[in-house]
Specification:
By secondary structure, this protein is of the alpha+beta class. Strands 2-1-3-4 form a four-stranded antiparallel β-sheet, with helices on one face. Helices cover 30% and strands 28% of the residues. It has a single domain, classed as Phosphoribosylformylglycinamidine synthase subunit PurS (Mth169, Chain: A), CATH 3.30.1280.10. It is built from two helices and four strands. One of its GO terms (cellular component) is cytoplasm.
């Protein structure tokens, strides 16, 4: 079984109200020095078979089609445990 991770984040130029709310709350809770917070989504996808370039490409298509909104979000896909994989920044 292959496990892939898809991390989806708002593009840098897109406002992130959830990240701003967390950023504002952290100092009130005693956490100083935080410069910025951006909030995103993480998907863990398990597929039959061993990790391969073909499966990586399939997960990238999933991310482009359903898991992210390419107009306002970027995503990165990697095999869990290796930290290396495809990255998409539209």
């Amino acid at each position: 079984m292959a496990r892939y991770v898809v991390d989806v984040m708002p593009k840098p130029e897109i406002l992130d109200p959830q990240g701003k709310a967390v950023h504002g709350a952290l100092p009130r809770l005693g956490f100083a020095g935080v410069q910025d917070v951006r909030q995103g989504k993480r998907f863990e996808i398990e597929l039959e078979g061993e990790a391969s370039d073909e499966l990586l490409a399939e997960v990238q298509r999933m991310a482009e089609t359903l898991l992210s909104n390419p107009v306002i979000e970027d995503f990165a896909v990697h095999v869990e445990g290796d930290g290396v994989g495809g990255k998409h920044t539209a």
